[in-house]
Amino acid sequence: MATSGANSDRNPLAFRQHVRREYQGLRQIPGPNGQYPLAESYYSRGFGVGVRHRGAAAVMQVTASTTYTPPSL
Question: Of 1, 11, 62, 67, which has the highest C-beta tally within 10 A?
């Protein structure tokens, strides 16, 4: 795995979130009753992860066997 440090554009994976500041982080959504906004309220958090550089990471398994054994899921 290759990395260039926190928040670098050269990292293999990118953390993505909404561009508008008010939609970032953990947000509390008020409940249906305006007089009691905490009653029936809930929290929302939206984010994603995207691949930036597919060649920056590799996985290899080394065994003593001379034949290929497909992985089992």
Answer: 11
